[in-house]
Amino acid sequence: MSKQRKVPLRKCVVSQEMVPKKSLIRVVKTKDGEIFVDPTGKKNGRGAYLSRDVDIIKKAEQTKALDRQLDIAIPSEIYQQLIAEVEGN
């Protein structure tokens, strides 16, 4: 009997749901204050996760959930990238 691998769970900053990391998109803030979308989920920096749902991403922009989570103003281009990432997948 093989041991079942534990699925890493992360919390969406908007819905507050714990879901498998693979079903979320990670936004990263580096030490230099750079913000970018991290589709691999492996880049260095402070990460915040969002569900792969256009409505959730729009809500994050309206409520500034990512801004609070990463303690920096998130440019609208990041939200556009997130929406493109969700629609492209």
TrEMBL record:
Lineage top rank: taxon: Bacteria
Protein name: YlxR domain-containing protein
Signal sequence interval, chain numbering: none
Coiled-coil stretches: none
Cross-referenced InterPro entries: YlxR, YlxR-like_sf, YlxR_dom
Domain YlxR span(s) in chain numbering: 10-83
Pfam family, one: YlxR
SUPFAM superfamilies: YlxR-like
